[in-house]
Amino acid sequence: MNFNLSEEQELMRETFARFLTEQSSMPRVRAAMPSGFDAALWSGLAELGAFSIRVPEDAGGLGLGLLDAALLMEETGRTLASGPVAETLVAARLLALLGGQAELLERVLSGSAVVSLAFHDLASRPSQWVAGGAVAEAVIARQGGEIVLVTLPAGDKGEDNLASTPVAELRLAEWPRRALASGPQGLAHFEQAREEWKLLIGAALAGLGREALRMAAAYASERKQFGQFIGQFQAISHPLSDLLCEVDGGKFLVWKAIRHIADGAPESAAAVSVAAWWNSEAASRSVAQALHTFGGYGLTTEYDIFLFNLRAKAWPLVLGDPQRLLEEAGRRLYAGEKAELPRAGDCPIDFDLGADARAIAAEIDAFFEKHVTPQMREKFHYSWEGYNPEIHRKLAQENLLFPGLPKEMGGRGLSPYAKIAAMDAFEHQGYNTPAANVAQMVALIIHRFGTDELKREVLSKIMSGEVIASLGYSEPGSGSDVFAAQCKATRDGDGWRIDGTKMFTSGANLASYVLMLCRTNPDVPKHAGLTMFIVPLKAPGVTIQPVYTFQDERTNITFYDGVRIPDSWRLGAVDGGVRTMSASLELEHGGGFSKVQRAMLKAAEELCREIRHEGRPLIEDRAAQVRLARTTANLWVSDVLAFRAQWTIAEKKPNHAYGPMAKLFSSEKFLTDARDLLDLTAPLSLSKRKGAAALVNQCYRHAHGTTIYGGTSEVHRSMIAERALGMPRTRA
Hints:
By secondary structure, the chain is an alpha+beta fold. It folds into four domains: 7-186, Orthogonal Bundle (Butyryl-Coa Dehydrogenase, subunit A, domain 1); 190-334, Butyryl-CoA Dehydrogenase, subunit A, domain 3 (Up-down Bundle), CATH 1.20.140; 469-587, Butyryl-CoA Dehydrogenase, subunit A, domain 2 (Beta Barrel); 594-723, Butyryl-CoA Dehydrogenase, subunit A, domain 3 (Up-down Bundle). The protein contains 23 helices and 18 strands. Helix 1 (7-23) runs parallel beside helix 4 (66-79). It is elongated. The relative contact order is 0.08.
C-alpha cells in the first residue's frame, strides 16, 4: 500500500503550489473579475509546463500521467486559478492525439491560445455552454461521427454569470469548423477526454473544498463570541469535521479511479463517475458550511469565502446537473454501461496490501475450509455472541489467533499490512472476532506491564486460546469519558479491594478475566489518578448482569463488591493507568466498518435482483441503481479513509486524526445507508429470513451501535477538529 507521491510528482506539486499561492492570490482572483481570466497567470502556468502535462512527448509535451494532472488541479482548486485549466489540459492532449494542428497546439502549450471542449454532440445540441468559451480561440466538439474544431469569432463572448468565470453559451453550429477525426478511434479519444475532465474537475473541487474548510477553521479559531472562540462550540466545529472526511475522501476517490484505470479494474468507469459526482457534492456542501461559519461576514464581498462558494458550484455545472453523474455511475455499475477511459500513466498510489497479505488471507481461508462446519457458521455473529471456544482454540494452535502480536510473545509477527489482511479474511469468512481482538490487546498489556505471576497465570492461558478477557472501561455515569471512571481500587493489606460498577462489559459472561481501569486517587486530575488491574470474573464479589440490545447482541453490567486481588495483578504504576492503556494503541489499524458495509451492499443487491418492480427486477430500475451507487460511493470512501489511516500507522507517518476520520465516516454512512437500503428493499427487508434479507435487517440494527461504541461520533468529531483542522479544544 502506498499513499506517497514519487519524488518528481512531489516536486511538481510543490512548484505549482508555490506559483499559484503567489500568482493566484485572492487579490489576483478578484482583479481578474468579472472576466474570470488572468492572462499573466495563464502565461506563467504555460512557462511551468502546466498545459504540456498530458501531451505525449512525441507531440512536444511532458507525457505525464493522470495523477500528475490531478495534483495540478488540486492546487488550481485551492487557489481558484482564473481560467479553464482542466478544459485546456484535456483539449491540449486531444489536439495532440488527433493530430494535424501542430501550430495551434504549440500556441496552447505556450499560453498564447486557449482551446476548450464542448461536452455534448453538436448534432443534438448545436448551442452549448463551454468553460472558457468567453476567451477561447477554438473549441473541440463532437458532431455525429466526427470530431471537429470550431473556430470562434474574436471579441468578448461572455456574459455575467454565477461565479464570474469565462464560461459562455456558444452557437457552435454557426461558426467555421474543420474535421479533426472521424470513425471509432477519433470518437474514442474524445470520449476519453470527457472522462478525464471529470477526474480533473473532481480533483480541483477537492482542493477547493479543503481550502474552504481550512479558512473556516482558522476564522473559528480567532473569532470570539460570548467570551469564547467560536471554534470551541461543537455546533461550529463538528460539521466542519464531517465535511473534512468527505473532502479528503473525494480526493482519494480521484486517486482510486486513476489506480483502477491503471489496473484495468472492471469498476474503473463507475469510479470516474462517482469521483466527479462526489466532489461536486462535497465541495458544494463544504463551501456552504464554511461560509456559514463566517456568519454575516461570509455574505459580504470583503471576505474571500464567497468566491469559493460560487466557484464550487460553477465549475462542475458546465457539464450539467451533477446528479446525472450518479445516475451514470448506477448504469455503469448495474446496467453494463461501458465508457472509453484515458490512459492513466504512472501512478505510484497503490491500495494493494502485498504478497504476504494475500498469503495469510489464503491460509485463513484454508483453515475455515478445513475446521469450520456449516453448523458452526450458523452461529457466527458480528458481536461477542459469535464467539466459538473450539474455533478460538484451534486458531491458537495454528498460530492464527493473534496475528498482531510479536513472535517473542508467541504471536504471528506479521507485517502491518498482513495483519490488516488477516482481519479482512476473518471478516470475509463472517467470523468477527471481538473476543480475539480484546484478548490480543489484554495480552500485549500484560506482556508489557504484568508481573511474572500474571504472565504465568493469565497470559499463557490467553495465548493458548484457553481463556478470553473483556474490558472494564465504561461506567454508567461516564460513557465515552473513560477517564471519569469512579470504580474504586483501595489498598487492602498487600493487595487491593475493588468496589464499583462497570457498564457495557461485553463478553464478561464468556470471559475469565476483565481488564479494569480503576480510580486509585480522587485528589488529582481525573486522568492522573487511574490504575489498571486484571480482575478474575469468577472472584467472590463479582456479579454479571445481562443487558440485551435490539441488535441481537448481549452486553453486561458488572458489579464489584469488595473484590480482593493481590498487588501482583496490578498493571503498571499506581496512578499510571493512562500510560498502561496507551500500549493498546499500538494495535490500532485505522479501520472502520467498510467490511460490513460491503456485505450489506451485496445483500441489498441480491434482494434487488429478487424483488420485482413493475414487472422486472428492481435492480433494473434507475432510482434503485442510483441508491445502490450512492451506497457504493460511501463504501469506497470508507475504504480509502481506512487505507490512509492504516498506511500512516504502518509507515509511521504524521497522523492527523486519520483513524478517527475513518471510524466517524464509515459508522455514520453505515447508519444512513442501512436505513436507505432497508427502505429500498422493503417490505422483504422487514423479514429475518435466512440470507440477504436477514443481513439487511440486522445491519440496520447493528449500524446504530457503530456510532456509539469505540468512542461516539461526537468524540471523534472533536478529535478531528482539534488534530486535523487545528481548532481549539471543545471538551473540558
